[in-house]
Amino acid sequence: MVGEPGLPTLSKGAVVFSQLSDGLLEAHPTPPERIVVRRHNAMGAHAPLARVELAGDEVPATVGELREKLYALFAISRRQRVDLFFWGKRLDDDATSLLDCRISTNSELTLATSARTRAELALLREASALRRVRICSNKVVSFTIGNVSRETTVAELRRAVHAHLHAPLSYLAIESWKPDADSLVFHRGDQLVKEGGGGGGKKAKGGVRMHNLHNRTVGGVAAPEQSLVECRVELADTALFYAGQAMADEQTLSELNVLHDDLVFLDIKRPPPFDPQPTAAPAKADKKAANGKGPKKT
């Protein structure tokens, strides 16, 4: 298709935002206070997280800082390359500030991932010493484990993960709770922890003061024993997976080619469900049978 002089030529299926953006976007004097990032290749509505919103101090200053934050927020493995786009233009220079990219408040960016090549993985492995891994699970909130190295065994990593799950002890919601304005809102499956760690927790107007780790809110829980269950996990009930493969206890992280700040999946059994019904007492033995007197024979 032939375009008019001075205008970009449109080919079938082409997007020309990257060619027009320099003329359409204006430079803004202040850094953005709120941005939205959508994951382009998220698997539809059933994806665990397809959109994140950053506001205030959460908005990083540079493209590189934003890329690092999105690795954690979207739980993306370091084996994947994260590409950021704004108005169709790829943001390649990590040192460039968001302001220089003409990203303003309420701007929306697109994130896309692609697999790194073996050569890229080898370079990445040589460039960064293994010091930390990220633990992701569909049962508890993601967290990081530091002080690891290439010589760390999977058994040692599992013990560190087990210790983290109990320091401090957290709780899982077994039912949703929609309380009054002074209490904490949480939903079934949310993970909560008492403010100040273990013990009885600080008292608040709505009850025991707790943190909801899923949405980072704080509030009171009037009767935690009725809607929460302790997240106690036995070491034997944990299993770790990397790149889709089970990790054997005797293997080292070097043998598994784990990268620095890479993603390890944690599989654990759920805590026993809360049973509001009391355990039924054993049936009393028949009084006649206890006396050795059975029914009369006919």
TrEMBL record:
SUPFAM superfamilies on file: Ubiquitin-like
Source superkingdom: Eukaryota
Residue ranges of the region described as Disordered: 269-298
Entry protein name: Ubiquitin-like domain-containing protein
Organism: Diacronema lutheri (Unicellular marine alga)
Lineage, broadest ranks: Eukaryota, Haptista, Haptophyta, Pavlovophyceae, Pavlovales
